[in-house]
Amino acid sequence: MDATEERASLRRPMRADARRNHDLLVLTAARVFEEQGPYACLEDIARSAGVGVGTLYRHFPNRQAILEAVYRTQIDALLAESTALLEASSASEALDAWVRLMLDHIVKQRGLKAALLDSDSPSEVLSLCKRQIRAAGDALIARAQAAGAIRADVRADDLHKLIHGIVQTTAETPEGLEQAHRLVAIMLAGVRAQRP
Known about the structure:
Layout: H1 3-11, H2 16-36, H3 42-49, H4 53-59, H5 63-85, H6 91-117, H7 124-146, H8 156-170, H9 176-191
């Protein structure tokens, strides 16, 4: 198969059974990675999904490919929730909900993201996801600022750094998530617009 035929075959839509296997593998990999970490045995993922290891490698030629697929799926879900929050009646409550979504996402995906960053080749998926998350945050922040709910000088990058800092300092403690949510509440109080 020459390069032109190969590119054409990559653009063909998947057969229904291939799509089911692909989606099942991503769902199973997400569960296995959550339980065992991002370096779980790929053969275990195939076995748990009820498919042969050859099927897994047909869809995902290496660990990075399946890590990226899992991460991308989870980012898509996060972005869908972020878009829905733009329609919420309260811009302030929508921003609060988004910050808490981000906190939960960062806590849950620390190992997966670290594994992608640890790869020999930089992940374009991580770069794309980062831009999309920032854009979602910018839109929710702009809406909250237009409503006078938060300070005019707050940027999405500020909130990301604060959330990451909270996760970094609380993740190792047994009560980490509870403490992280308490610190996020304090952070949100700090970004509220001051009423005259």
